[in-house]
Amino acid sequence: MKGSATVLTLWTGVSATMFVLLAVAHSYLGERAVIQPLLAEAWTIPIPRWAANRLIRYAWHATSIAWLGLAVVAVGGRPVIAVGAVGAVSGIAMLALLRGHLAWPLFLLAAFAAGVETGVVGRAALTVMAGGGIVILLGAAAVHLYWVFGGTRWLDVVVPAGVDGAPAFTPGRLVTVGVVLLMVLQAAGIAGAATVDDPPLLLKTVVAAGGVVLALRAIGDGRQTGFTKTDRSTAFARYDDLLFTPLVVTLAFASLSGVLLAMG
User: Fold this and answer.
1) Helix (H) or strand (E) run with residue 254 in it
2) Pairwise CA distance, residues 230 & 233, whole Å
3) Over the stretch 156-212, which tens digit does the pLDDT of each residue have?
4) What is the spatial distance between Cα 234 and Cα 157, in angstroms, rounded to a whole number?
5) For 102, which DSSP code?
6) Which burial class, exposed, middle or buried, applies to 37 when counting CB atoms under 10 A from its CB (0-12, 13-18, 19+)?
7) CA 162 to centroid of chain Cα atoms
8) What's the farthest any 2 CA atoms get from each other in the chain?
9) How far is CA 38 from the centre of its chain?
């Protein structure tokens, strides 16, 4: 059989077909025979039950997604493309099901890296991501300016709360102005990195440092903010999972896009 392109195609086709069949059967039969009966039972777990249900369902079907990626490799697809596809599908699924879980930005980062490697994420896509980040930063800066000048809307959900339900801290006007300046600085840095020919090292460093700070904010402090927060019962925690942390992740990707554009 050595040197036979026909046989090679036949057996790789068999391999890919088995992975596809396994993926379909695993998800379809597993959903009916395992997941639905399990989630219908009364049981407790030290995280909210609705979150546990989604996590278990996702973890089961994630295996099928990975097998479909192996099927792509079996028929001769580039492994890095399969990695990117699996990462993108897994990340989007987790984002839709459980925004407060750290897995989805890591999956999307894997897909992003694979996309950059293969050229799927080219200069145009990086520019769009950088531009989106600039818009979000300037919009957030405008909201903070609204608070500086006495606005009160949304203040009850944008500050972490303590165990008594009261705000953990009260940001002063000077601190809020400082946040506005940092947002505008990061927006300007991303814009410069994306549009200036051969931008200076200092500009790249500032944008990269801002991206690291944003990534750390998304990861959280292990108590009240980000993916690692333990208190998820407050209004801030709910909005943090739903909106704030996903926006911060988006800004971290925008910063990374700006740095890559600056590197040419």
Assistant:
1) helix 245-262
2) 9
3) 888 887 666 677 777 889 999 999 999 999 999 999 999 998 899 999 999 999 999
4) 9
5) T
6) exposed
7) 27
8) 79
9) 28
